[in-house]
Amino acid sequence: MGEVPVIEPSCEMRALASGDGHVRLVTRNLTFDAERQLGLDPGAAHPAALDLLVGALATDLLAGLGREAARAGTPLYDVELRLEARLGNPLVALGVVGEVGSPALASVQGTLYVGGDADEAQIHALWETACARAPVFATLRNTASINITIRLVP
Amino acid sequence: MRPILVGAVIYDPKVAVIWDIIAGFFGAQKCPMDCVFYTNYELQVSALLAGHIDIAWNSPLAWVDAQRRSGDTCRAIAMRDTDRDRRTHLLVRTDGPVRAARDLRGRTVALGALDSPQATLLPLHHLEGLGLKSGRDFEVRRHDVLVGKHGDHVGGEREALNDLLAGTADAAAVLDLNWELWRSDGTVDPSRVRVLDTTAPFDHCNFTVASAFPAARAEHWTRVLLSMDYGNPAHRDMMDMEGLKAWLHGRTLGYAALEAAVREQSFFETTVG
């Protein structure tokens, strides 16, 4: 009987709270800042937790798509992903006393704009592969409805 | 000393930004404050009277409720300039049959939410003063949008206006500020709709404190609030968002009509659990 292999952490992070909802995040050689749970202030200096979550999903999908396209030798151009994330009840997330419902991410709707030499079927295949291997996407799709449509850029 | 806790009722997450800005302003003035949000005014008034919060940004009906439940011991410490001397207009179609208030007899009046001072309670009180009683002399089409928020959401008044424009009501009650806005932004064509009658002036929101809140802290907080200057660009954005050009000391003489209205309509006896 061999020992169960230990799975090393794929991400280690330190988070330092400095008051007013401001958090300094340190991972590997990187330090960045975030503040608050929801990003409501158009003049904010740092992303909010929800910004980071949706940004993580977008990065996950686009980085994965880029990797799959490179492996297939299919260059893609003008790749842009636009996402809209909705919470079950954002007022619950804001701590409004008396509000009911869930603060969880309920849905993400989006559009992927992509151009390249590949035909539509190839791009869809690359996208499906990228989604199947995307850790953030795979995690969020268990709890939220994620619907992303692809539009080819001529 | 712990921050002063200020309660506010919000229905839209974006409103939280205004309170963040206000809290930031107070923090910069060495008068730290924090906000607690409530989903309705009944909860907020309970929290104020229980001492869970120090100050409540109260609707006029919440002020009346706080006085009713505290034995008239609360104090209104501040309000916006635009909270003073508001009026409600009863609007009618210019091509309609209603020429005077007495013509509403046997007709339909569109109102806002059941707990809206400006769009339901005060216009009903006004009509009662003219000898017109709802249910006896005219029918009411009420628009209960976000009940519990005391008509803060403009949706009830918009629906009342839509009734008037669609001909499903013969009159609609709207706050003077909304009438001015809708005339200027094209929501309503002033050639199609006119003001039939107008209520006496009344006051709107105020910052309320309970008797247990130390007077010195209330005075300090009020002094800082009133130091906001519309001429200062750093303050102006927030003041524009809240719809004011100056904060003023609170006054309570403008709530007499609403107090009479809730008595006349047995509001708290019939609508509060």
Structural notes for this entry:
Chain A has 154 residues and is of the alpha+beta class. Chain A has helices spanning 49-71, 90-93, 120-132, 135-140; strands at residues 14-17, 22-27, 30-35, 76-87, 105-116, 145-152. In chain A, strand 1 (14-17) and strand 2 (22-27) form a beta hairpin. Chain B is of the alpha/beta class and 273 residues long. In chain B, helix 1 (15-28) runs antiparallel to helix 8 (233-242), helix 2 (41-49) packs parallel to helix 3 and helix 4 (117-129) packs across helix 9 (256-264). In chain B, the strands form two sheets. Chain B has a six-stranded mixed beta sheet with strand order 2-1-3-10-4-11, with helices on both faces. The two termini of chain B are 37 Å apart. In chain B, helix 1 links the parallel strand 1 and strand 2. Chain B has ten helices and eleven strands. The interface between A and B is medium-sized, with 12 and 15 residues.
Strand content of chain B: 15-25%
Main β-sheet of chain A, in a few words?
3 strands, antiparallel
Series of secondary-structure elements of chain A, N-terminal to C-terminal: EEEHEHEHHE
Portion in strands of chain A: 25-35%
**What radius of gyration of chain B results from the CA coordinates?**
19 Å
Structural class label of chain B: alpha/beta
Helix content of chain A: 25-40%
Biggest interface pair, counts: A-B, 12 and 15 residues
Major sheet: arrangement of strands of chain A: 1-2-3
The averaged pLDDT of chain B comes out at 96
Secondary structure blueprint with pairings:
The complex is a heterodimer of chains A (154) and B (273).
Chain A: E1 14-17, E2 22-27, E3 30-35, H1 49-71, E4 76-87, H2 90-93, E5 105-116, H3 120-132, H4 135-140, E6 145-152
Parallel strand pairs in A: 5-6
Antiparallel strand pairs in A: 1-2, 2-3, 4-5
Helix pairs in contact in A: 1-3
Chain B: E1 4-9, H1 15-28, E2 33-38, H2 41-49, E3 55-58, H3 60-70, E4 75-80, E5 88-93, E6 108-111, H4 117-129, E7 139-142, H5 155-166, E8 171-175, H6 176-184, E9 193-198, E10 206-209, H7 215-226, H8 233-242, E11 247-249, H9 256-264, H10 267-271
Parallel strand pairs in B: 1-2, 1-3, 6-7, 6-8
Antiparallel strand pairs in B: 3-10, 4-10, 4-11, 5-8, 5-9
Helix pairs in contact in B: 1-8, 2-3, 4-9
